[in-house]
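README, section 4: Worked example with a bound small molecule

Sections 1 through 3 covered apo chains. Here we extend the same pipeline to holo records, where the ligand is supplied as SMILES alongside the sequence. The molecule in this example is magnesium ion. Nothing else about the input changes; the structure line simply encodes the ligand pose together with the chain.
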Amino acid sequence: MVEIFLDNVTHIYGKEVKALDSTTLRVENGSLIALLGPSGCGKTTTMRIIAGLLRPTSGRVYFDNVDVTERSSQERNVAMVFQFIVIYDKTVFENIEFPLLVRKVPKEERIKRVKHAAELMGISNVLNQQARKLDPGTRQKVALARAFVRQPTVFLLDEPLTNVDPQTRLELRKIIKELQKDLHQTMIYVTHDQAEALTLSEKIAVMKDGKMIQYDTPEALYDKPKNTFVAWFIGNPGMQFFDVSLKQSDGAFLLDAGEFSVDVSNVSGQLVKYGNELKLGIRPENIQVSSQKKVGWFNTKCTMVERVGNMHLLTLGKGRLEIKAKIKETDVREGDTAWVQFPSEKVRVYSKAGELII
Amino acid sequence: MKKISFRSKTLFLALIPMIYLYGLVIYPFASVIYYSFFSYDIGGTPVFNGVGNYIQLFTDPQFYRTLGLTLSYSILAVGAEFLFGIGLAYLLVHISRGRSVATSILILPLVMTPAVAGIIWRIMFDAGFGHVNFYLSLIGIPGQKWLIRPTEAFISTVIVDVWQWTPFVTLVTFAGLTTLPVELVESAYIDGASEFRTFKDILLPRIRALLYIILFLRVIDTLKIFDTVYTMTGGGPGTATTYMSIFNYLNLMTFYHIGYGCTIAAFFIVLMNVVVTVLSKKAGAALFAA
Amino acid sequence: MKLKTLIFYILLAISLLFFIYPVYFAFNLAFMPRAAIFQLPPNYIFQPTLDNFVKVINSWEFSKYLMNSTIVSILSVTLSLIVGLPATYALVRYDIPKKGTILSMILGIRFLPITSVAIPFYIMFVSLGLYDTMFGLLLTYILLNLPFIVWLMRGYIMDVPTELEESYEVDGLSKTQVFLRITLPLVYKGLLATVLFCFIFTWNEFGIALLLTGTNARTLPVQSLQFVASLGLDWGALCAAAVLIASPMIVFGLLIRRYLIRGLSLGAVR
Ligand SMILES: Nc1ncnc2c1ncn2[C@@H]1O[C@H](COP(=O)(O)OP(=O)(O)OP(=O)(O)O)[C@@H](O)[C@H]1O
Ligand SMILES: [Mg+2]
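The generated complex, written as structure tokens:
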């Protein structure tokens, strides 16, 4: 159990590929955080640097304020599970036992701990089988058990559920969450599945192009995404944006998208200094839609209705604009006229460069 | 005219080698068996001898000596090649530069004409001006009568086999290791295993199938050894390096016993078939899968 | 860490020295003047001479055996290809009963104690008048090359996706055309490597040639024994002969370095 601190870490592969760019990240002692970001953004690189498998090109790595940048994985005592399912050519028991064996843990203790770890993962019944003959889901359970069998300073889980069948994925998500609760272990969990990140972790670090974009609680990421990338990346579908200009009429402040406008009089004060060109952002699930005409709502033409899980995703045309709305119940059908409102407290406003204003 | 169906055409194509096989392996094999029951010397006429040749073979002390020698040669050479070869692969995996130079050098013994290699080693093992003795003397080991004394000659042939075939073990092992995912090494390393432990416990078991195949090939080929030994020692001194193939050849071409030669050949072919069948249980499947 | 790397390099260097030394030794002696050969410590630096080569080439009908080796190697590899390639293709792509057995039997030849199997060839060849003829030697060498051709080409052909061939077939090429115009060009590197591999193998073959040839159809490796008998203590000339026989193979071997291991392991290493 440690606090991990990456201080301004940059990593360049070879001479050209800048995989991490001045990344700073603090993982509090005993917390489970997720690293989230599109493919190639540097998540695995971050993990490998924390694990001590890679030495950063520049920057330092601290465990509990001790500089461990120069220390090997073994000296850092980390455990890591990879996306590529790593299984040794041994029985399940010997697989899980391996880290204890090389640490010369006494035999009885080994057996006890292996059995316990296998129980946690629900693989006690296959302990004597050859691990390589098992299905991917079970193999990954073995790899996880091998990580949980010892007491490392930190668990690094790099997309551990990506190559696993959906059934096992749900099961393992639950197990990992419970283990984290019981053990209060520092865990870093890499995923590009935001649902996974949102359900598992206390905090999420969103990365892009080797940079740490926002590090926050799931709620904050959802409610107050720091920039348009995070806003768009989180959510399904993510936040949508409209280019707007700030207009004043009859003492009220309006964000005018041309085809429609939204009243923001209550927060207009902060907006003025950002100039005229702004971006209005709103999540599809925050838009209100009705088939009846309502005062203050604007009319649109519904061009498509899709079912997404138990929700309806409506595509609404308004002139040259297209609006996506996600609602639970609706009587709007394709071709109908739909009346729409953007609740002003749900509207987010970003600068032209994409930074959050309100 | 009826068009020949595509199916029969492809069947025919596949069968050509088989016809060849039957013509040039099965027939000779049958004829080996046939002549093995005859007393038949070069220039003479075959006279039926019943199991006479076999009785001669199984009561021939030289035959048992040859069998023992061949087995010891095989075990010693293959054992050394695996230890040395895998050790070298370990070194190759852990260095960062110079791999291509190393692999180029390792290719040399493999492509060197074996008969010629035998001759070169024969010169190098020369007791008087041979370089082997000279370099040994530099590290304080007195000169040996390499090809003159039986035990030394035997060891010489093993050394030559090790020289020629260790690179094979090394290069195959190395090639196999480079196909393994990096995560495997990293995971073992994070789990706390040393480099050596990782190599021995994690990586080598992963290329087990490959190791079986080369073990199989090496055992077969050492049991059949002929060319290097024949040009280096001619099976001597005395019969100290008369391995199975050489024993067979000498009886045929030096002593002119065709019938008896066929008896030895028949025995040897059957023996090799048994060895191949036993050993190929594991290696065969791996070869088909490759 | 540094020390360990150093030790690794030293161990590696010593081992490599062991493997390269006999080759270096042969080349060294081949160019050495007669007087410098029987000296210890060995001479590493000297005025190189071609005398040894001249001596070998001008006598013992070296060029005749060189021709023999070349012709037998080229022809047997070519013929084996003609027989083996279509068969391999058929064995990979089409439904042939007992495919596995056919393949194992072809591969099985590789494991036979060939000097023993060749004894009846000797009897047969003597009675058919094929003893000590290039033709007879050729026939047997095809037998030796077939397993390699079938097994190596099998791997390369299997690497070509079936879908690719099928799509050309749908576009109107016959199966033969697909094989000749699509598949072969795709596997040409593998084919070239296989050809060179078989060439090396045939050129180096010793046991069968020893058994089945006399003075007429003899190949270089067998003739090298003759050199030992007649040159005896003329190590320089002996090494010159060795260099002449082996160096083309060294060149070929280095050319197909990567494929060589695949060949020697019967396709187990990719
Ligand atoms: N060994 C390497 N050599 C060179 N470039 C590399 C290497 N490993 C990764 N990269 C590059 O560095 C960048 C970051 O890679 P990284 O593996 O950290 O991404 P990631 O976020 O884990 O992606 P994914 O979601 O696909 O796993 C990528 O552009 C990748 O191509
Ligand atoms: Mg990754």
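What to look for in the output: The domain at 62-255+274-289 of chain B is CATH 1.10.3720.10 (MetI-like fold). The mean pLDDT of chain B is 88.

Section 5 describes how to batch many such records.
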